[in-house]
Write a structure and sequence with these properties.
By secondary structure, the protein is α+β, with helices and mostly antiparallel strands. The chain has one domain. It has 2 helices and 2 strands; from the N terminus they run E-H-E-H. It has a two-stranded parallel sheet with strand order 1-2.
């Protein structure tokens, strides 16, 4: 099983977004259009909380242009 990556994208960008995620070695997981982007950003706080409690969570964060 490959790792997955959530994403939010409007219909016009969905295909290229999925291709980029796949090319990076992940399975894309669509969450909806850009209206869901804020919820996806808020997910980071949930991940931090889980890691604080020593949950086995791996999520990669990168600065734009570093991937």
């Amino acid at each position: 099983m490959r790792p997955s990556s959530f994403y939010a994208a409007d219909d016009g960008a969905r295909g290229i977004t999925e291709q980029l995620i796949t090319d990076a070695g992940y399975d894309p997981v669509p969450l909806g259009g850009l209206g869901k982007a804020r919820a996806l950003e808020d997910l980071t706080w949930l991940l931090f909380a889980a890691m604080k409690d020593r949950a086995l969570v791996f999520y990669r964060f990168a600065v734009p242009g570093e991937l």
